[in-house]
Write a structure and sequence with these properties.
Number of domains: 2
Structural class: alpha/beta
Strand order of the largest sheet: 3-4-2-1-5-6-8-7
CATH topology of the largest domain: Dihydrodipicolinate Reductase, domain 2
CATH class of the largest domain: Alpha Beta
Radius of gyration: 19 Å
Length: 335
């Protein structure tokens, strides 16, 4: 059993990580960390009463290094990099769910803040298994992708070599409220989000450079992207619709099936996908349709799972040479 820590356990992604890891046959959770002492886990997450006996401790890298081989960091960006740096120097492997290691240094500092772990950022493996499975095997630091980039990249990746670079890729993305985190804000307050729908950070969201950078690394092409996220009055789930122009006609379903023939957590549909069918799972469901050279792609994921926690555990499985689907949720919350 690999002894692991979950740091940032008080949030939604920390809770989802813990739920997966408690039933995992190869990982044993021995440490729960937060920014301050939290006492018994059931005080923070009542749903775990009688299911987990661990207490939440004030996160301490040296203490984690004494007990654990691997740490999952479910911390906000800026907060994660310093903690990850200390853990790595103490010999602990890290799966980081923040944005702190997802981007090249120059891009990160342009859109976030000065980076305090320049030594390790270049060694981080981007945790999208369909793209970097070989690099993830044996990795010491994994940068878990964001939810919007995961759904967007998986939908568009098979078509990058066929797209007309003279036209922008239009991305219309919608997420459930849990993607905004546990802390309530004016926008996530019930009175605002209930029976409502609105965009936020249109054409300026920080996930846009993450998508553009990964497209360039995969294809060598600099695509113009117009990314507009929206908040849905749902607890969880994400639907990303992409619109682009092809250089030549093709059968998009055949391309998707061939590209993902060895990808256990990508499902190709021949009718439009929905949020409910992927909710509660690590699957990314994808549909595509062509009209002449116009291409429409729709992809759906659970923002807390495939967009964060279950994908993090898949990455950890690959780091240690376990089966990719070991302990990973596959059954949707239906009905």
């Amino acid at each position: 059993m690999i002894r692991v820590a979950v740091v940032g356990v008080s949030g939604y992604t920390g809770l989802e990580l813990l739920k997966i890891l408690l039933d995992h046959d190869k990982f044993e959770v021995v440490y729960l960390g937060a920014s301050e002492n939290g006492g018994e886990i059931e005080n923070t997450h009542p749903s775990l009463k009688s299911l987990c006996e661990l207490s939440i401790e004030k996160a301490d890298a040296k203490e984690i290094a004494k007990r654990c081989e691997l740490a999952f960091l479910a911390l906000p960006h800026k907060a994660s990099m310093g903690f990850a740096k200390e853990l790595l120097e103490l010999g602990v492997k890290v799966v980081d769910l923040s944005a702190d290691y997802r981007l090249d240094l120059e891009t990160y500092e342009k859109f976030y803040c000065p980076h305090e772990d320049k030594e390790h950022i270049k060694d981080a493996v981007y945790g999208l298994p369909e793209l970097y499975k070989d690099k993830l095997k044996g990795a010491k630091l994994v940068a878990n992708p964001g939810c919007y980039p995961t759904a967007t990249i998986l939908g568009l990746l098979p078509f990058l070599h066929l797209l007309d670079e003279n036209y922008p890729i239009m991305i219309d993305a919608k997420s459930g409220v849990s993607g905004a985190g546990k802390k309530c804000t004016e926008k996530t307050h019930y009175c605002c989000i209930n029976e409502n729908l609105f965009s936020y950070s249109p054409l300026s969201h920080r996930h846009e450079p993450e998508i553009k950078e990964k497209f360039f690394k995969s294809s060598g092409k600099e695509f113009d992207i117009a990314f507009v996220p929206h908040l849905l009055p749902l607890t969880r789930g994400m639907l990303v619709d992409s619109y682009c122009l092809l250089k030549k006609e093709c059968n998009p379903i055949d391309i998707l099936k061939e590209f993902y023939k060895d990808a256990p957590f990508v499902r190709i549909f021949e009718k439009p996908v929905d949020i409910k069918s992927s909710s509660g799972t690590n699957f990314c469901d994808i549909f595509a349709k062509r009209d002449g050279k116009k291409l429409f792609i729709s992809s759906s994921i659970d923002n807390l799972l495939r967009g964060a926690s279950s994908q993090a555990v898949v990455n950890a499985n690959l780091m240690y040479g376990f089966d990719e689907d070991e302990g990973i949720p596959k059954y949707a919350y239906v009905p």
